[in-house]
Write a structure and sequence with these properties.
This protein has 421 residues and is an alpha/beta fold. Helix content is 26%, strand content 26%. The protein folds into three domains: 148 residues, no CATH class; 168 residues, 3-Layer(aba) Sandwich (Rossmann fold), CATH 3.40.50; 87 residues, 2-Layer Sandwich (GMP Synthetase, Chain A, domain 3), CATH 3.30.300. Strands 6-7-5-8-9-10-11-12 form an eight-stranded mixed β-sheet. Strands 1, 2, 13, 14, 15 and 16 form a six-stranded mixed β-sheet that branches. It has a four-stranded mixed β-sheet with strand order 21-20-19-22.
């Protein structure tokens, strides 16, 4: 039986025991997960003998839908353990929607997210200097980031200042902030003088527009973290114009933690080895270099994940990985060519500039390109470029908009192909 392919560095997995045996560090984590969470034994019991790849490959992937349907309590032998843990603050919780239609409750041990973040910073050349020293950070998070992890509602400044971090949100709809709200946010940004600015790329792009319109500069910013969603180079350029600092792509999820980190738009993202094992599964019949990922978390006590199907797709690149985004947000042309937001970015005319866009398929050969910009793109340059990318016979119509609303989860998708059965 062939060994599974992993995105981790060889040092993170270590050597296998020989033959078809799993690397010891991976087998140890799997057995710890089985001991902690009874859901896995019910799904697929494993034997006591050393695990081989044939057994590992038979362990069914865990989906978000399965977690929603079985409930977070299925990860605990006794549901009262969750209640006790929440009461004495050993556990905390977050609700996330992600790609599921119903909310998913995530139980995490106290301090887990902070530890995830520190390890992610240490794995980044740009963020490493902030990992173990006090620094100020401002966060502009999407609506789905709330509860006790990203508190904002009704808390005046500076009461949203926690451990050096200011959460700028005071609205459930950051993409539709009024000018008065942008006034407040920009003033708080100036008052905080952060070294790190973190946020969802669309929200940060609109923050850059607000800062530009007010003639505001924040020279204290030394790093910008693009997270919570897939960034376009259009976002990156607009953000850099207002906040000229190195940009980091930090990719993960509420339930799985931080998984990849790299310099934004450099195709050099790498696995944060101490956070997770990330298995690479060929996508759609073996598209060269393109993989689904299955995540096995490391060191988790509450809700550890084993071969968890995140719905994220990555492409192997010479210097690391390019995060393509959600599987549902990728388009395949009739000739088999894969189109992601990266390909859309690459064909947009050099003189085109926008704060945000969304390319949406409305029919088999019809697409709409909605963009938020200060001026219209004249002529058919944008439309013709996108039509050429999407394939013969495809027509694209471009529309300038005042705003583009996110999904109910608060997330944005630069590319929205028709759902396939």
């Amino acid at each position: 039986m062939n060994a599974a392919l992993f995105a981790n560095s060889p040092a993170a997995l270590g050597a296998a025991a020989g033959g078809d045996a799993l690397p010891a560090v991976l087998e140890q984590e799997i057995r710890r997960i089985y001991l902690r969470s009874p859901i896995y034994t019910r799904r697929f019991p494993i034997h006591r003998e050393p695990l081989e790849w044939s057994c590992y490959n038979e362990i069914p992937a865990l989906s978000k839908r399965e977690i929603v349907e079985s409930g977070h309590q299925s990860f605990f032998a006794d549901y009262r353990e969750i209640e006790r843990g929440l009461a004495d603050r050993r556990f905390e919780y977050e609700n996330t929607s992600g790609t599921t239609s119903a909310p998913m409750t995530v139980i995490m041990e106290d301090g887990w997210w902070a530890a995830q973040t520190r390890r992610a910073y240490l794995a980044s050349r740009i963020l490493r200097e902030f990992a173990d020293r006090a620094h100020r950070k401002c966060v502009l998070a999407p609506v789905g980031c709330s509860s006790n992890l990203c508190p904002y509602e009704d808390h005046p400044f500076p009461h949203r200042y926690f451990d050096g971090t200011v959460y700028l949100n005071l609205s459930s709809d950051p993409f539709a902030f009024s000018e008065a709200e942008w006034d407040r946010i920009v003033i708080e940004l100036q008052a905080t003088r952060p070294e790190v600015l973190e946020g969802e790329p669309v929200y940060l792009s609109l923050l850059a527009r607000a800062a530009h319109r007010r003639g505001v500069r924040v020279p204290s910013i030394r790093a910008v973290i693009l997270t919570y969603g897939k960034a376009s180079t259009q976002h990156g350029r607009r953000i850099h114009e207002a906040f000229p600092a190195p940009q980091v792509d930090l990719y993960g999820s509420t339930e799985a933690g931080y998984l990849f980190v790299g310099e934004a738009f450099r195709d050099d993202s790498r696995v944060i080895d101490e956070n997770a094992f990330i298995e690479l599964v060929p996508w759609r019949g073996g598209t060269p270099g393109v993989h689904q990922i299955l995540v096995t978390t490391r060191g988790r006590e509450a809700m550890p994940l084993l071969r968890y199907h995140t719905g994220d797709i990555v492409r192997s690149m010479p210097g690391g990985f390019r995060i393509l985004g959600r599987e549902r947000d990728l388009h395949t042309r009739p000739d088999g060519t894969l189109v992601s937001s990266s390909e859309v970015d690459a064909v947009l005319p050099r003189d085109f500039s926008c704060w945000h866009y969304c390319l949406t398929q409305t029919g088999e050969s019809r697409w709409d390109f909605h963009y938020v910009a200060d001026k219209s793109a004249h002529g058919r340059g944008v439309e013709d470029a996108l039509s050429g990318l999407l394939g013969p016979g495809v027509r694209v119509n471009a529309f300038r908009r005042k705003a583009i609303a996110p999904a109910a989860s608060g997330k944005f998708s630069p590319l929205k192909p028709l759902a396939r059965g």
